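Weekly modeling sync, notes
Attendees: S.R. (lead), two postdocs, one rotation student

Agenda item 3: backlog of single-chain predictions. S.R. asked that every request posted to the team notebook include the full sequence so nobody has to chase files. The rotation student volunteered to paste the first one in as an example of the format we agreed on. Action items at the bottom.

Example entry:
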Amino acid sequence: MAKKVQSAQAVEEKDREKWMARFQVRLAMQPGVDRAIVLKAVKDVTTHCAETGEHPRAAFGDPDACAVETAARLVPADQAERARRRNVVTNAIDSVSKRAGDIAGL
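Predicted structure, as returned to the notebook:
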């Protein structure tokens, strides 16, 4: 019986780790989010779950949606907008470079 309990705990811990990993990646992908914001958000989630014993999914829901909401809360709107514009320009340059390479046969 102890093996089943240990196995259930291992499965729950693995699920927590997967939720946190997905949350971190999705949060880092949001415009204007830097390392400090990711670290703060992870600390907030970890602290809450440690204090309440809740699973992150029960406390915060879907990790993707939580990442979007967290970014909106922690990143000033003007900073996020600048990052969005910068991303659009960077993506356009990358696209043109790729097409030029394709045409040149590189």
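Discussion: group reviewed the output briefly. The helical segments are 2-28, 35-52, 56-60, 63-74, 77-104.
Action items: rotation student to repeat for the remaining queue; S.R. to check formatting next week.
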